[in-house]
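Work Package 4 report. The design task specified in the project plan requires that, given a folded chain encoded as structure tokens, an amino acid be chosen for each position. We show below one input record used in the internal validation round.
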């Protein structure tokens, strides 16, 4: 039996949200609401894999929820909640810790990047992180996960965990009357012109929450119009005019990044942007991009500020979302316990 379509995605409240999070994830969550059952999570348990000051964690949890709402997620259509309110995420992650292999985890490039030379000294949670991510997704039998490019390897691991669970427990799954596999093999949804937004100071480096190298490298969702404009005008570029076709961007990472950002903000394609701006220099393109960015991000930043100033509304959304998520999670987790052989 095919699995009913369901979307799940999550964002860590571990740093200030930036344009990459918006274009690679949040913005793309919004239209999916009209097509699928969607669940959007603030993954606070993922965030504590590296140290978070408790008050910062709370504030950022509200901020991610505020960004969801400000971007147009509708808590009536979608389930919006924070991960730690639904304990089954942690429970399923433990089961998956016992399904996933050490070698699979050790291959994760994001772990290697984050741990660096310090791998003996990072938390065990950071190593097991992708197993919790697989639990987030599979707890709801999610079929589609919209994310940025950097999450691709974690989604491949999620597929491996689902397949191994389905295989290892196939007899138990069948004995309990389930028709075929218990978990779907989830599809990553990595689409659009800005699935990997790069630093404004270095077109070969991903824009990231943890980039402390330069304030000017990152556009934050809470930036005001002046900051956005200044950062775009000072963005690193090359001296050539923009090409008329996408092929001309190949060896020009900074130009490619700005054109991708423009296309994503304007809901259009890279080709369409180049047919308008091909042959023009950055003296023309950058002010146009800054104006577009301010017009899209400005109203959302204002709404985020309004929401976090009085978090009652956010708290109610998260509580209601957690109640709805818990109903789905409890049902599936009861089946999973039974499949694994836990006595109840
Ligand atoms: P996180 O919190 O690092 O990022 C949240 C989302 O933003 C995307 N993203 C980007 N997209 C384009 N360009 C960038 N520079 C950029 N930086 C970040 C990420 O790809 C992501 O979609 N492991 C996840 C959180 C998570 C999750 C999940 C996601 C936990 N459980 C289940 C999906 C499903 C993470 O650390 O995202």
């Amino acid at each position: 039996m095919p699995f009913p379509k369901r979307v799940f995605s999550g964002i860590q409240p571990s740093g200030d949200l930036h344009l990459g999070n918006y274009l690679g994830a949040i913005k793309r969550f919004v239209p999916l609401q009209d097509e699928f059952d969607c669940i959007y999570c603030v993954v606070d348990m993922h965030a504590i894999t590296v140290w978070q000051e408790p008050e910062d964690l709370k504030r950022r949890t509200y901020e991610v929820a505020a960004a969801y709402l400000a971007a147009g997620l509708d808590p009536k259509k979608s389930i919006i909640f924070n991960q730690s309110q639904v304990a089954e995420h942690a429970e399923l992650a433990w089961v998956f810790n016992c399904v996933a292999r050490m070698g699979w985890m050790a291959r994760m490039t994001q772990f290697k990047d984050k741990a660096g030379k310090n791998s003996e000294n990072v938390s065990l949670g950071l190593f097991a992180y992708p197993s919790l991510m697989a639990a987030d997704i599979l707890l709801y039998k999610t079929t589609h996960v919209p994310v940025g490019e950097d999450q691709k390897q974690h989604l491949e691991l999620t597929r491996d965990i689902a397949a191994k669970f389905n295989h290892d427990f196939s007899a138990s799954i069948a004995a309990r009357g389930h028709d075929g596999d218990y978990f779907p093999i989830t599809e990553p949804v990595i689409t659009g012109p800005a699935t990997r937004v790069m630093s404004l100071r270095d077109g070969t480096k991903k824009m990231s929450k943890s980039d402390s190298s330069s304030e000017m490298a990152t556009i934050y969702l809470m930036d005001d119009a002046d900051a956005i404009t200044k950062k775009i005008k000072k963005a690193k570029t090359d001296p050539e005019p923009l090409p008329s076709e996408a092929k001309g961007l190949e060896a020009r990472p900074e130009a490619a990044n700005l054109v991708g950002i423009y296309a994503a903000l304007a809901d259009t394609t890279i080709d369409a942007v180049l047919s308008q701006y091909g042959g023009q220099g950055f003296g023309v393109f950058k002010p146009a991009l800054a104006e577009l960015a301010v017009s899209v991000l400005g109203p959302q930043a204002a709404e985020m500020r309004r929401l976090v100033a009085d978090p009652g509304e956010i708290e109610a959304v998260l509580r209601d979302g957690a109640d709805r998520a818990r109903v789905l999670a409890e049902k599936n987790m009861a089946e999973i316990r039974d499949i694994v052989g836990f006595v109840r």
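The chain has two domains: 6-195+310-340, 225-306. Validation will be extended to a larger panel in the next phase.
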